Amino acid sequence: MRVSRTLLLVVSIFFLALESMAQNVVQIKGTVYDSETKEPIPFVNVVLKNRKEIGTITDVNGKFSFKAKVKGKKAVLLASFIGYLPTEQAVEIAGLGNVEILLNTETRKLDEVVFEAPENPAYAVIRKAAKRKRKLAPEDLDHYTFKSYKKSELFVKDFKVFEKWKVAKEAIKVVEKLKLDGLRNEDGSYKVPILVAESFLDIYHEKGRDARKLEKSHVTGIGVDPDDNVSRLMADNSFNGFDFSKDEIFLLDKNVPSPIGDAWRITYEMWMIDSLAKVGADPCYKIEVEPRAKGDIAFSGKIWITKKDFALRKLDLKLAVGANMNYVSSVDIRREYIKGAGNKWYVKRSRLDLDVSDTGPFPGVFLRLYTLNNGFDSTTPMPQGVFDDRYEIAESKEYDDEAYWETFRDSLSVISPQDAISVHQVIDSIQDRPAIKRFTVVGKIVANSYIDGKYVDWGSVLSLYAWNNVEGHRFQFGFRTTKKFSERWFFKPSIAYGTKDNKWKYSLDAIYNINRSKGIFVGATVRRDLRGLAQLGFEGESTRYLRAYTRWGNIDRRNPYYNDEFKAFFTTRFKRNWSPSFSMRYRKLSAVKPVKFASAVEEIKPWNEVRSVEGEIGLKYVQSNMFVLNRSNKLIPLGAKRKPIFTLNAAYGMYKDGSDWKPYQRFSAGIRQRNAPLTALGSTWYKLEGGVTLGEVPYQLMKVHQGNESMLNFTGAIQMMKNFEFVSDHYVEAKVEHYFDGKLITRLPGLSYLNHWFDARILLIGDVVWGGMSDTGKEFNSHYINTDGKKRGYHRFRYLEHDRPFIDAGVGIENIFKLLRIDFMRRLTYLEPEYGGKNWAIKLSARFKF
């Protein structure tokens, strides 16, 4: 009896095996058409008749594809869609690769029943994913930590017209000699590596704050050393930290809408291409995304949303073809997420490929950033002090043990693991070539405006010479010390001479680094130089290019003064993002052309010289996860340009009035932000600042509003205000520039030609200044106030009316030929003839933007 049962079991297993072998796993592909119009039908449900759980939905072109086990030589497909009759179609297995299904329109009349087109099935999935995205992100946890390996690879992809240059020939020769297949381009030519950076970090997060600790790094690059800013930025590799759970991703200098952001319906069109997809063990919806408008800066590609949580499981996205972005040939982002600590979804691995080869005759650049995360933990308490007042500064922690780094290297890297060591050697070999060394020196001068030296850098070369109508020919010479001179001390002296005023000018900045990890610095500045009054409070915001430009031309109209100054300061940090500062300053302002009033008004003091002593306290809030200490011992926050920066200052001072010293107080506050996202409308730069000066003071100690009478646009100036036109002892300034980033111009038929021919973009500009002067200030400076509009032999100013702000506005067209910007500006208030200002103006500027 037992034998019979055993025999029966064996026979059953045998026939089951035969049946299983008789089932073939096949790929079923085809298209569904309307039987009358022969047009493809999207969103049709196509399944196996006897196993309706196996199937898919047709895409926007009516196509479908899925895998299934089919018994025998035939399969029966069932296609159904509202408004059409369900259709069965038997097909041979041999013909499953090109199935055509015709659906007939349902002609049955239904009384008082209205059929509406069904919603795109992808919309329902994305709507749920967008709603749940923040709840599924780990930022919702009280705290978490993980470990992260990052790798950055930077290559010159195509030397183009420079391939005949000796510097290019030598670099290509080194790469070709080693025959590294991982460095080949699509056309068989070689990429030339110029920088490879690897790092291992600990990442910490608590609600509202982050910290990152660089454990090890390994950097090899041409013209860089492991401790300079470029190397540290590449080692940190924070550019690859896109958060798709937010509404927008900051890519290069653009805000790109996320496919699961709140504006997905405005920006993207989506299609369900596979409702039975799997990523690992997670059943997913596979959805294709495309931008709705051609030219929009948006993504195209595929995303995978889990069926259980509606979480983003995987993405494979590219910058959409035709996106209004300069120089960029392609952007490719691939990412996988994993469910981890706290049931949240974390980035497991991520890769960003950036191809910047749309550069005309200039060499193209290829950048790959790769991240691998693990060890997600939301239960272990944060290490003691990780969020205290000490903050992380990106420093070199060079560790060149190749065996250690090889454990992290992945096949997704441009460089294969076996080639990685050779590439570091390639870079070392290239940078030792004489032509490369010379080219590197020139490149650094262009980029930094300084000539690199061992202990000092010479420059700035931008300030070596200038001509203006006060100094005549101005010659300047200076240098700054390097870290090889001292890790703690920084000196920056300069000396200048003008051939017309025959006066020497000088400056010396000295900074001592007390505690690098806590950002404690002390320093002093001593200088004698010539500056316009408005520019004395503008130094902190101006660039080295703007400072050099203001030395040229007719500077007399800016009411310049010789500025003798001594300043001592102390700065520190607490709670990572807060920066208090304390300073003491002595200043003497001497008029270039002393004023002599007529005898009838001799009782009015000519303020040819103003001496003041003041103490100031300041507080600055900059939200940033990491800071870089630059060569001038100044902390540069990473990623802070997209977030608001708050400032608060208070000063108490005294100025000399004859033999007496009179007190005054000054208070100011401000907020500014670049690239503030406005969903689908682009991004905004804005600045809001207000202040008040209390006391009976000369106008030189008040707020001199920065005007701009030149044809060039300067971001920090009031564009349609004249130089030295308005002075205030209480004021509020608001500046705003809104960049549509191509999102408006591509939708307006009349303007789309600009986009087609010039890749142009539209922006809006506006300045508003509220202000005025107290009765005390008016009386004290009455002889300097311009009340009649007539010219005198000295500079006079006006004050703003309390109920009438100064306003200008305009429309700009930027990115003309990927470089030029033209602003059409209009002055809207203070148009009376006595003000003598221009009502209209065209402002020009050139800006490199992606």
TrEMBL record:
Q: Please give the superkingdom of this protein's source.
A: Bacteria
Q: Which UniProt keywords apply?
A: Collagen, Signal
Q: Which residues cross the membrane?
A: none
Record keyword Iron present: no
Q: Record's Pfam families?
A: CarbopepD_reg_2, DUF5686
Q: Residues of the signal sequence?
A: 1-22
Specify whether Signal is a keyword of the entry.
yes
Which named protein is this? Collagen-binding protein
